[in-house]
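We modelled the chain as a single entity of 75 amino acids. Its sequence is:
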Amino acid sequence: MEVKIGVQHTPREIVLESGQSAEEVERAVSEALTGKAELLSLTDEHGRKVLVAADRLAYVEIGEPSIRRVGFGAP
């Protein structure tokens, strides 16, 4: 699942492919925004953690689960 994170005062967004479900990502974002967690912590497909200070979050966009296509077939 593709997740895009906007950070305040930063021109670029953080984009990662996460193995977490949309519900897990949404729960982590909600906890960060309500003050239950000081950091938004997400894990990408390769097991790397992405940490963003909760008070610096501008937006989080949760995309559809990505489907990996192999070959030269039509979309």
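As a brief sanity check on the tokenised model: The chain has one domain: 2-62. The mean pLDDT is 89.
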